[in-house]
UniProtKB/TrEMBL annotation:
It comes from the Bacteria. Belongs to the GroES chaperonin family. This is 10 kDa chaperonin. The lineage of its organism: Bacteria, Bacillati, Actinomycetota, Actinomycetes, Kitasatosporales. The keyword Transmembrane does not apply. Together with the chaperonin GroEL, plays an essential role in assisting protein folding. The GroEL-GroES system forms a nano-cage that allows encapsulation of the non-native substrate proteins and provides a physical environment optimized to promote and accelerate protein folding. GroES binds to the apical surface of the GroEL ring, thereby capping the opening of the GroEL channel. One of its GO terms (molecular function) is metal ion binding. Keywords: Chaperone. SMART domains: Cpn10. Heptamer of 7 subunits arranged in a ring. Pfam families: Cpn10. The keyword Chaperone applies. It comes from Streptomyces albus (strain ATCC 21838 / DSM 41398 / FERM P-419 / JCM 4703 / NBRC 107858). PANTHER family: 10 KDA HEAT SHOCK PROTEIN, CO-CHAPERONIN GROES.
């Protein structure tokens, strides 16, 4: 991950157990594993989404900025900062964390992907 300049830093500080994430993909058409195009209007059951953690509050213990997290897009609060859309949630609303630091970790709890 590249080092961000001071100008790229968000002008906010997260409080308590809040996590600010940026969703990986926009809603719309997508492709199945077999290459079939699935239109945006297709009805899909409850589907979790991946996002990148942008900022965390001081009481967040399991994720850091730059981690990828799995969350339920229906349980979210959206916010716009400098024209970019983000999702704000509590740490307890995250379902999984994927980060390079967990690779081969001896103290892993098995909760992380």
């Amino acid at each position: 991950m590249s080092e961000k300049s001071q100008d790229d830093k968000l002008p906010i500080r997260m409080l308590h157990d809040r996590v600010l994430v940026r969703q990986d993909t926009a809603e719309g058409e997508r492709r199945s594993g077999g290459g079939i195009l699935i239109p945006a209007t297709a009805a899909v059951g409850r589907r979790l989404a991946w996002a990148e953690v942008v900022a965390v509050g001081q009481n967040v213990r399991t994720v850091e900025a730059g981690d990828r997290v799995l969350f339920d897009p229906e349980d979210r609060a959206e916010v716009e900062v400098r024209g970019v859309g983000y999702v704000l949630m509590r740490e307890r609303d995250l379902h999984a964390v994927a980060a390079d630091r967990f690779e081969g970790s001896q103290d892993s709890t098995g909760l992380y992907l």
